[in-house]
């Protein structure tokens, strides 16, 4: 497998806080970050709710000039990376910058900039379209600005696989370290798609919850009355480090990356395979690479977005993979509190899994009120966090296009 890779830093910007401590406390208290949309005028919209990052102040992280040149998704990524680097204690002045890189996933990239400049084009004409539009909207702006910020020269690119983007980015970053091309990688996902166009498009696919009367209860994975996901935004960035480098600088280690696997359903561009074939392959192979038996996994952070079909297929697939161990396994969906941040989800949820291992506490699946007979026989950690001795966890991320990623983290031994 190559070098051992550990997680030594966490940085998050989410609807539940702009630090790992704020996020963790909110999750453990079962708090929802879903509320009425303020990002745009929702008149004439059927969906009025989202998981917005409130009170985000780019000026805390970078100057006005840079702020104007970054789309919101890249602002989130850069701010989260700064937090993660600070948390890790890495001093790049004392690190080989040729052996440090950044890989960041995003499902859609700079859609807010595209919308804004299209409006300029229609209202003011082609001569007024911003010359900064292209470098703002491109998905690779996120890792590129991170490299510029820290002066790091190793592998640097973006991954775009819809809702699996953040997880894919982490997997690719681990591979870079395992191959010896880097000692430290900044990796994760970012997204900012709460706009009139995006919300309309997802809603017209019949993907979103329309439970506008009670935003906090709208995202309800595994619950019988779930009616779609709640669109969200944010970023989750982790610092991945080659073990010997981490030990040499006496870094705090949250968890070790034990294994991962990727697959595709090869079935439908937006719907999951009804038998979960691709997800099964990802989970099964992630266990195999981790050299773990099913009974050695204590907890799964499910992809579970609160869609009728998606949650059911994932539960059925987990039952197939874990079989006799299902009664000892706990599964929760932190999207019940955060909403679904698309390409950022895998990064945020991997960071959450590192905190779960570090704290031996499992955040709940909130809004679990009416058990679904098609999603049963499983501990969904309903409504309240639970303490549990955690050794190894799995994080699932599945995306439109049939993309599947399963990552296994373990307590560092």
Write the layout of secondary structure elements.
Blueprint: E1 5-13, H1 20-28, E2 35-36, E3 49-50, H2 64-68, H3 72-88, E4 100-105, H4 111-124, H5 133-137, H6 141-150, E5 156-159, H7 165-178, E6 184-191, H8 196-204, E7 234-242, H9 243-248, E8 255-264, H10 277-290, E9 299-301, H11 308-322, E10 330-332, H12 335-338, H13 345-359, E11 361-362, E12 386-387, E13 392-399, E14 403-410
Parallel strand pairs: 4-5, 4-6, 9-10, 9-13
Antiparallel strand pairs: 1-7, 1-8, 2-3, 6-7, 8-14, 11-12, 13-14
By CATH reckoning, the class of the largest domain would read Alpha Beta
Q: What's the arrangement of strands in the largest beta sheet?
A: 5-4-6-7-1-8-14-13-9-10
SSE order, one letter for each helix or strand: EHEEHHEHHHEHEHEHEHEHEHHEEEE
What ranges have pLDDT less than 50 throughout 5 or more consecutive residues? none
Number of helical regions: 13
Q: Architecture of the largest domain, according to CATH?
A: 3-Layer(aba) Sandwich
What gyration radius follows from the Cα positions, in whole Å?
20 Å
**What is the β-strand count?**
14
The name of the CATH topology of the largest domain is: Peroxisomal Thiolase, Chain A, domain 1
The CATH homologous superfamily of the largest domain is named Thiolase/Chalcone synthase
Overall mean pLDDT stands at 97
Helicity, as a percent range = 25-40%
Query: What fraction of the residues are assigned to beta strands by DSSP?
Result: 15-25%
Q: List the quaternary state of the chains.
A: single chain
Number of domains: 2
